[in-house]
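Internal ticket - ligand job 265, adenosine monophosphate:
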Amino acid sequence: MYSVRMRATKDEMHISGAERLVDEKDVKNVTQSMIERARSHDRGKPDKINISVEEIKIPIKEITSLPINLFNVNSVEDGKKAARKVLIHIGIPDPCIEKAFTLLENGPSDGENMRGAMVMNFKGERLEPDKRRGIRASHMDITPGASLQLADALSVKGMTLHFTHIKEALVLASKVASVKGTIAELCWSDDPFYTTGYVASNKLGYVRIPHLKTEGDYHGGRVFFVDNVNITDYIEEIEKTPVLITKFDGLGEISDFNNIQENNT
Ligand code: AMP
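stdout (structure tokens):
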């Protein structure tokens, strides 16, 4: 197996990125389609595309995805309330939740977005050594079979348009949740026109929340809430251990938060 990764930039600014875990015979096709994707991104035409192809020499961890739970809200105010409720239910201390929101709303790297994620412990301390870069989840993918299960579930809900976005976020969130020490993840995009975000955890699955910021807001990012971790080992696993999702764990809806179903897988 090979890890194939792409990153496209214009004037050093991030345009797009993608990554896959593929058999040797598929490296050529996947590389080609990544280049095509990079060149047709709606954020603009890149002036630099980096592709890396790396043989995987350690065993690949196979996992089941987190289940998706749709938490439908109609406003940013309700979206943020929903995300806070979910994080409290998972057990994240209130001051950490407030700090995470403030950082994501204002730009966690001196007012700018980070390339990767913050890591926050239960004292609200940021553990990532590089506060501009953060830590980057990498070396992960989903099998064609599990991807089809996800596509079918989204199609039933009339959400096929969101397939690529959800697939990529679910792969990342499932890998992060599978790493020992992760308790939850909070994410919303830095794309000013993509206002959906999520709270992911082993306890409640991938809770998708349609409004976590207002349109036009270019701030976004990720926080990995952790407990009891050795930060060096944690970063190594998030960034380097290859993880393949071989099964999709289903899609549900949260209509009554007080009656929320916990994920027992
Ligand atoms: P995106 O979901 O691609 O819009 O990314 C939203 C934010 O999540 C970015 O601004 C980064 O701070 C962070 N991020 C993006 N990709 C990764 C990654 N692979 N690992 C950790 N954090 C990431």
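Auto-summary: The chain has a mean pLDDT of 94. The chain has two domains: 2-57, 62-259.
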